[in-house]
Hints:
By secondary structure, this protein is mainly alpha-helical. The chain is built from 10 helices and 3 strands. The chain has helices at 17-39, 50-54, 62-73, 77-95, 119-122, 140-156, 165-172, 175-182, 192-198, 203-206, and strands at residues 59-61, 161-164, 201-202. The protein has a 3-stranded antiparallel β-sheet.
Amino acid sequence: MRRFRKTPTGTTATKTMQTRIDALEEIYQAFELETAPYRSGAACESGCAFCCRDAGRIDCTTLEGLRIRDRIRKMPRPRQLGLKKALKRDMQKREAGLPSPCPFLMKNNACMIYPARPFACRRIYSLHRCTHDHPPLISRQVMAIAENTIAALQRLDDNGYSAHLSYILHMLDTPRFLATYRAGDFKPEEIMAFGKTHRVAINRMVVTPSASPPT
Ligand code: SF4
């Protein structure tokens, strides 16, 4: 089993973003390794995008969102513009209570940002083939490890937030918020109104000190 670096509270400003993104990758890898024995019987197969179309909320942390944003910015301009519209449409549909497939899902059922997909997507698999009557079936052990992993991701992003990925990407597109976040500063008052309306969690407040990271 691998141990990832712990993020001591209060030292965020001294860490470079790249160091934190590297730590993100370590957390993902630790989860993969620790859950591999329980996922070996998964019914998931290439081309099935059930979770991307029907799983509902796909949360991510601000740090995960920053990594996705960097990936989007390397895409051709027309695709970037198309995504911007798709993300906006996703927020509008959610606010109207309508189902909305993930904006990153392509027509061939592939994920546009697969290497940078957030943990919410990495944690999902199913022990049976999913249908509307049979949503993903995940082992209890994997769910427990995933809870610890989420706590570790929130600790790593201790000047950040968690929310559905379209909202996190929207926040990161706001110059003032981005500048505050990149500087390692923490000003929840900047997003207070938006956060209340869109169920944005403050990572520093939701992290439970007793949650132990995967080892
Ligand atoms: S980010 Fe990718 S893997 Fe995750 S729900 Fe969207 S299309 Fe699916």
